[in-house]
Design goal:
25% helix; globular; alpha+beta; single chain; 7 helices
């Protein structure tokens, strides 16, 4: 199974990039985040013409998640079911070929001293509880998406300058780490522990991509039974080099099933 994740930062704007990538790489599953389109305006016809089954949930102007899959999901659920904010445009769970795949667009957090940052930390706690309720670390499962956390110093350029950034602050890394520790493994780190590759390059720094000044905040993780079957994982920079690109690019992984 080849699975990919891509924060498109507006699906309608990046639709040509997505369609081209699908045609060229033909993944079994592509998880999208930050689609920024309400369901009534989702470009379903254009995407369905690619031959993929489309599962999506969005809202106007921001958030939004989608899963494109070669086979129709056997089960679909949206958001949290713990009595709090549902967040169904940030959390999408599908079952494909018997494997639960969780696609998340984790809140960015805005600033360290803002309520939005505390909400982000709580979001990770809720997500761990969600895993506890719906998955087993002893069974195959995949979690992927834009996590808005660079977990290690190697995962961000000039880490010493970003200690108070909401995507690298100690509390955010700890919150992410506790959620991962439920039973997931980062397959990129597992296969290439010393490799530095980024998935996000800030628009505000026009030379960021050329200078390789980025962040690895998009991740693919798997439970142990599946992580050991990961044969390859890589970052494809071509979508970031495209005309009118997202500030993120595609991360993909191959699993032998």
């Amino acid at each position: 199974m080849k699975i990919a994740t891509f924060n498109v930062n507006s699906l309608r704007k990046r639709l040509p990039i997505v369609l081209q990538w699908l045609e060229r790489h033909q993944p079994d599953v592509l998880c999208l985040q930050e689609t920024k389109v309400q369901d009534s305006e989702f470009p379903l016809t254009a995407l369905a013409a690619s031959g993929y089954d489309i599962t999506f949930r969005g809202m106007k102007a921001y958030n939004g998640v989608a899963v494109l899959s070669r086979t129709k999901p056997e089960a679909v659920s949206y958001g949290f079911d713990d009595g709090g904010d549902v967040e169904d445009a940030r959390l999408l769970r599908v079952v494909i070929q018997g494997i639960p795949i969780i696609n998340t667009y984790v809140p960015q957090g805005f600033e360290i001293d803002s309520p939005k940052y505390q909400y982000k930390l709580k979001w990770y706690e809720r997500l761990r509880n969600h895993f506890e309720s719906h998955l087993s670390p002893k069974e195959p499962a995949i979690w992927c998406g834009d996590m808005n956390v660079a977990p290690r110093p190697i995962d961000v350029h000039s880490p010493e300058k970003h200690l108070k950034h909401v995507c690298y602050h100690e509390d955010a890394r700890n919150a992410y780490g506790k959620t991962v520790a439920w039973g997931f493994e980062d397959v990129f780190c597992k296969l290439y522990p010393d490799r530095q590759q980024f998935t996000f390059f800030d628009y505000r720094a026009p030379s960021a991509l050329a200078a390789n000044k980025g962040w690895r905040i998009d991740h693919i993780l798997a439970t142990a039974p599946l992580a050991q079957r990961c044969q390859r994982v890589d970052v494809d920079l071509e979508p970031r080099r495209a005309t009118d690109p997202s500030d993120h690019t595609v991360l993909w992984a191959d699993f032998s099933l």
